[in-house]
Amino acid sequence: MQLHRRRDEEGQVTPALLIAVIGGFAIAVAFVSLQNLLDQTGRAATASDAAALGAGTGHRDALSDVFAGNSGLHLGVLKQLLEGGSPGPLVLARAEQEAREYADANGAELKSLTFDAFDVGSRQWEYTALTKQDDTVEGGNSEARSESRSRVAVRITGGVCTGGLILGGGCRGFGLLEKLCELELAPPEPVPTPSPSDDPSDGPSEPSESPSPTAPPFIVPPGLEGVGCLSGADILGLLDPEIRLIT
Fold it and tell me: Cβ neighbours of residue 235 under 8 Å, at least 6 residues apart?
């Protein structure tokens, strides 16, 4: 049986088909735009994560410079840091430099790097990196999509105890460790031993040589034998800093 189109139905397929084509095209455009937005959001998050990790890397690398040498002064610096003090301008500058390089390598600009604080409880330095993508997509709030924030922590994983460092299986206070450095770098002056007085009844006698002066003894506490003054490398080995992203 053949079906015949009525005269008044001719031309009605074309508008319906046009509507379907337009609807499909709109869906395709919306899908592409959504995909671009998701891609940009993902790239922005990746860039801020990279910048934050770069800040942590710069911070850790700069600690080597802070604790360089064997002067013993690094113990005082470490005490200040563990009490929640700022890591100092040198460390902050190095952290920002590395964060900027990592952001640039991921197609973004570092808008800011903020040192949040030193968390005494978890023993970690915390930073927040804000980046903005160099390329943006049209439509909507592209500024919000192109900017992203990430946080990073440089955490001390070991070697620290309350008021000191863990050495020889026990907690050794900073005061004792500083004393060891002082004795190594500036030994105490020897104490002269008095010579025996001459007895006049024995008649004249030849002058005797004065005994060599002796240094006062210093007894090294158990567990610290052979430790001496800790170097910066020793301290970094004990701290074993770990870098990780935080929420």
Answer: 67, 74, 75, 78, 159, 165
CB atoms within 10 A of CB 49: 21
Q: What are the per-10-residue average pLDDT scores of the chain (247 residues)?
A: 53 60 56 52 87 96 74 74 81 95 94 93 93 68 74 92 84 84 64 55 56 62 68 82 92
Are 100 and 92 a contacting pair, CB within 8 Å?
no
- The type of residue at 165 is L
Q: Does the model's pTM come out above 0.70?
A: no
One-character DSSP codes across the chain? ------GGGTTSHHHHHHHHHHHHHHHHHHHHHHHHHHHHHHHHHHHHHHHHHHHHHHHHHHHHHHT-SSSSHHHHHHHHHHTT----HHHHHHHHHHHHHHHHHTTEEEEEEEEEEEETTTTEEEEEEEEEES---SSS-HHHHHEEEEEEEEE--SSEETTEEEETTEEEEHHHHHHHHHHHHSPPPPBPPPPPPP-GGG---PPPPPPPPBPPP-PPPTT-TTT-SPPHHHHHHHH--EEEEE-
Sequence ranges of the domains in the chain: 22-136+143-188+226-247
